Amino acid sequence: MKKLSVRRRHPLAAVVVLLLALAATGGLYAAFAPAGKAQADAGSQSLTIKEGKKLFEVGCASCHGTGGQGSSDGPSLVGVGAAAVDFQVGTGRMPAATSQGAQVPRKKTVYTQTQIDQLAAYIASLGAGPVVPTKQQYGPDGADIAKGGELFRTNCAQCHNFTGKGGALTKGKFAPTLEGVDPKHIYEAMQTGPQNMPSFPDTTLSSQNKKDIIAYLHAVDSSETTNPGGLELGGLGPVSEGLFAWIFGLGALIAVAVWVAARTAKAKKS
Amino acid sequence: MSSQDIPEENLPAEQDHAHGAVAVADEENPFADPGLPPHEHRIQDIDERAARRSERMVALLFTISMLATVGFIVSYVTIPHDKNIFVFPIGHISALNFALGLTLGVALFCIGAGAVHWARTLMSDVEVADDRHAIAASPEVRAKVHADFRQGAKESALGRRKLIRNTMFGALALVPLSGVMLLRDLGPLPGTSLRHTLWAKGKRLVNMNTNQPLRPEDIAVGSLTFAKPDGLEETDEEFQNELAKAALMIVRLQPDNIKDKRELDWSHEGVVAFSKICTHVGCPISLYEQQTHHVLCPCHQSTFDLSDGARVIFGPAGHALPQLRIGVDSEGYLQALGDFEEPVGPAFWERG
Amino acid sequence: MSTTANDTSRARGKAPAGERIADWADGRLGIYSLAKANMRKIFPDHWSFMLGEVCMYSFIIIILTGVYLTLFFHPSMNEVVYHGSYVPLQGQMMSEAFNSTLHISFDVRGGLLVRQIHHWAALIFLAGMFVHMMRVFFTGAFRKPREINWLFGFLLFVLGMFTGFTGYSLPDDLLSGTGVRFTEGAILSMPIVGTYISYFLFGGQFPGHDFVARFYSIHILLLPGIMLGLMVAHLILVFYHKHTQFAGPGKTNNNVVGMPLLPVYMAKAGGFFFLVFGVIAAIAAVAQINPIWAIGPYRVDQVSTGAQPDWYMGFAEGLIRFMPGWEINFWGHTLVLGVFIPLVLFGVVLGAMAAYPFIESWITGDKSEHHILDRPRNAPTRTGLGVAWVTMYMITLVGGGNDLWATHFHLSINAVTWFVRIFFFVGPVIAFIATKRICLGLQRRDRDKVLHGRETGIIKRLPHGEFIEVHEPLSQEQLHTLTTHTQYAPAEIGPAVDENGVERKVTASEKLRAKLSNAYYGEDNQIPKPTSEEYKEITSGHGHH
After folding, report:
1. What pTM was estimated for this model as a whole?
2. How is this protein situated with respect to the membrane (chain A) (predicted)?
3. pLDDT 10s digits, C159-203
4. Alpha helices in B157-213 (DSSP H)
């Protein structure tokens, strides 16, 4: 982590990043090219893993061990799969600060998506695990929003609130807000169960179920969500409504009452 | 309201010496009440132009109200009920709600503001003192009322004819019982219904999400699954009543992480099934932390340790979550090995 | 009166129509006698005297909007499939109650507005009653002859809480359903009868098929009916007692100074209704409340974090959240103290408020009427107790929202709960002591002001070099206002031997009363107000210091 941030400030860092990005674009093109993954060049695949290993050794190995086998500072990453890496690093949770509180919060991403992909490829090569979902899996096509809502209320709302505003867990831990979270990351979180969140593997919450949930969240918890009644007040329910009623409702009425009861200005005797 | 004849005891140490306005402060009483201050004129009282301005202001407010009402009607008629608009800084909102609310608000507010402004600036603001009169009746009235009452009571002979009195009281005391009786059919008697759920030996555990029976291999360590008894469908008449007792929360632990022996015995390969209904007041508890194995209730924060027989470790719940004994049937599906051993959900007097 | 009526009837055709209608009504209703007493009734001007009006008007608004809502709401728990215009719920199973609430919100033009006005007005109604009650408490307006009206007001507040709660439960959404489930759990905790009451209330097992319909008749008929009656009684008593007033020149215990009902208060109070309605309508236009579509229909196995009741029940929620999980099992029975104690505390905390006027009047032994309001500082012990009560209430409110405190202030929910557990007991004590100190300090300042005058801020240098601040003597009005309050002497236990030399037993209640009285009015518990002698001595001795 520290080493990495030192390197990022190196004068040549920009060039390195640019080169990496170029390489990645090529790699991405290859990945999304009509030929598909199956025919992807084995050579470029192993190159990606190699790059990922390098990144891992610099940024992650100090906690997770040089071979990703884990240490006292971080769990083993063997078998967590590419999805877990993409989620943890893609949401900025990893690399984590050395002294963390009750849980590792979401923050600014340190790596580019290409680097994340490389890291993910490397971790995936250590042991089979959930793969990064495709747009097809988390995209809105063919999703049943209403079913998603029902699933969300059954599986997710208890921690993340009705519309994904987040909530408290024990001893300072919390379920984060889901607003503005990349659908891909939501999918990955359900699949892998990061930190204290339980996982919802495809065997119990099918891929279609996950798609439905993501579509529902987009409908009720995004910047385009309509709140017909007006200010959403945080979507937190009666507590914020009560505060609003006291401060703005009763407050305004008391201000009005002061005006009603006040003496009218007297003409100045002069 | 209260009789005045009780001699006043423990009077205030110093009686309110200013009772009854004293016009000037004299040597004896420097704190005497100087009486109401003289009335001062407002600008509207002495300047007709100012009064006119107030009048126009009031009229303007009433006119704005009329316009706002017209606006309300126009909005009602012209704005489709499903039209959404973006209003900074509120966000995406219903155009109709916003328009109707604001026009109605303005229409009402301006009537009020006009009336108050009128009262404040144009109506007389001379303060008037009104005398208060003792609330308690005078001794004569009091004596008269008491006498009348005694007279009436005597004429009724209620005190003398005890038989009438007693039977009347008896009748009046009994008759409300009919009303109480009528409440009996508000609901059935509890019987043992709080002790039983739909779970029984051989009942499969069906996944809430997919409506498919669960296999132990479906449930990964660290995952969270909810289940209902096989055969209970959302369309059933008693779906809610049955689910309120039967809802299950299923997690898988490493068997050597399970500290409670009974929990281990009742699990299947580390898969444990607990009632989803909090033992405090019945919220569906399910804030499962997969690393600590704690489950928190979102309503009142009771915390249970699923690795230790769902023992209460924090909060207001009084006892552990009931566990369902599970196993696998011949086709490899998870099944219950009987009903819960104890009543699920909130505790009650007969629970024992 | 009758001669006037005869005169006008003779001059038929000439009298204006209004007068003729009034005459007609008077002949049947006797309105002139009523008007004689009330038309020019005097009301004192003070903003805090309008808090009660805020409550009355929001209550009227609630009734008006509530009647509108009943035209569309179906109080039924039959399960239906949603086909309305809110997409994220289409095809979902829900009760008819929830379905019709969605219909009101999305398919009835203005339905959402009325719903939101209804709900916002309810929150404001209860907040208004709370503040109104505090105003009455801290100014001592509950004293004789107004104790009964205090009780009426208190009942209105409590009934308002339950009316609000039953209304909140009607849409049968996931949030309110969770609240109803809590109610069931709370009822079940009652010893002996709990299970039966629960089965009778819900028509069997929870949730059953009846509670929406039952809550509906309670919410729209039973409770508001009682409240309406109480409110009318409350108002009649306000009229009958005439309003209290603050001390001031010309204002005595035997008069009431202000403006007449007709025309000033007719316009001000009438106008205030529209102002209140206007403000609430505007709030309903810009702020969303209880978006049941985002919350979803109630299902017993679903829940959301942040499940709280409306604010007025937050205090009950807090009590139940910070209670430790005590449960006693004996002879095949369970005593659910973890739920039952909060239930009892709920009654005790509220009941303490209701009983206070009677306790205070017992301590003072004062049987006279009080129409001049106390300034809170002049009743330090009462003010301290009131602030302690409010502190306790507020701390339980914090407890009721402990999860949101945790997430928004990055705290541990366990730490917040422990804070509440400790400060529920400690907080009121600190608040009491601090408030009483402050009150006594303010009393001392008043005393200094009376005796030494107001600090003008003008610094003067005396010929011998000393700097002094010029104190300006108070006006007669101010002198009177600051010294007119009554001060009690602590009650003493009467002689233990009566006039015949027979020893009298001093009862425990007498001793208690003497102790309490001393705590209220004893030395150091109130600052004696300046006497005329002190004033004269100082003013004559001092010159212009």
Report:
1. 0.90
2. Multi-pass membrane protein
3. 999 999 999 999 999 999 999 999 999 999 999 999 999 999 999
4. 162-174, 176-182
